[in-house]
Structures are given as C-alpha cells and as structure tokens.
Amino acid sequence: MGKKEKQNDSLDWIKQGDDKSSDDAALDVSGDLVLEGSLGIAEVESMHQSLSQILDAHVDVTIQSESLSRVDAAGVQLIYAFVKEAKSRSISVKWESVSDTLVETATMLGLHDGLGIAGASDA
C-alpha cells in the first residue's frame, strides 16, 4: 500500500481535475490544450481521460506544447491517437506551438507526420 500511496502522491494534480495549478497540462472543454512539464507514462492515463472529454465535447482543438520539457514514447503515442481520433470525428486539431522535445521524440518514433506538427509555428 505504501508504494501505491507514493505513486498517487505524485499524481495529485490529476485527481483534482479542474484545478488550474497543474504543471503538466491545463485544458478546458473549449478545446484549448496546453502541454507543460512532463508527459510520460505516469501522466498518460489521466491525460487520456482529459483528452477523451475534449473528444466527447466535439470541439475544435488548439494545442500548445512549447513548454513541454519531457515526453516519452507513451506520451507521443497518446497525442498521436488523440489527433487520429479527432480527425476521424471531423474535429479540427491545430498546433500553435510545438516544443523541440516533442518534435524530436515524434520523429524518432516515426509519428511526426501523423501528429500534423510539420507546419506548426514555433513560439
């Protein structure tokens, strides 16, 4: 139980849902998505829930990731699946800014084009 408690402590911002103090991502049902800090395996489950809410709201999405400092394969795969699902639902996904970290990881995984970040402007 101690191990599980420690894991949950590191994810406190996730449980709070609408708490604007999140260092990792802030989003609302308007479809504005700001990725900050880290998007790794530890954050994927809760981020998936948040992205599902946006998809269910069927709103166009604008993503900013300029402040994303770390992203791993699981994080890129989640964003890729989100973009793909949004397109299948005819939901527009627009990138306002893209972090170099996201571009490098997506390129290494061969998902750069599928994310639609090729034409995004850097901040």
Structural summary, described in words:
This protein is an alpha/beta fold and 123 residues long. The protein has a single domain, classed as Transcription Regulator spoIIAA. It has six helices and four strands; from the N terminus they run ααββαβαβαα. Strands 1-2-3-4 form a four-stranded mixed β-sheet. Helix 3 links the parallel strand 2 and strand 3. The longest helix is centred in the middle third of the chain and has 17 residues. It starts with a helix and ends in an 8-residue tail after the last helix.
Short description:
The chain contains 6 helices and 4 strands. By secondary structure, it is α/β, with parallel strands linked by helices.
Structural features:
alpha/beta, 4 strands, single chain, four-stranded mixed sheet, 123 residues, 6 helices, disordered N terminus, Transcription Regulator spoIIAA
What is the topology?
Blueprint: H1 2-9, H2 12-15, E1 25-27, E2 32-39, H3 41-57, E3 61-71, H4 73-88, E4 93-97, H5 100-109, H6 112-115
Parallel strand pairs: 2-3, 3-4
Antiparallel strand pairs: 1-2
Helix pairs in contact: 3-4
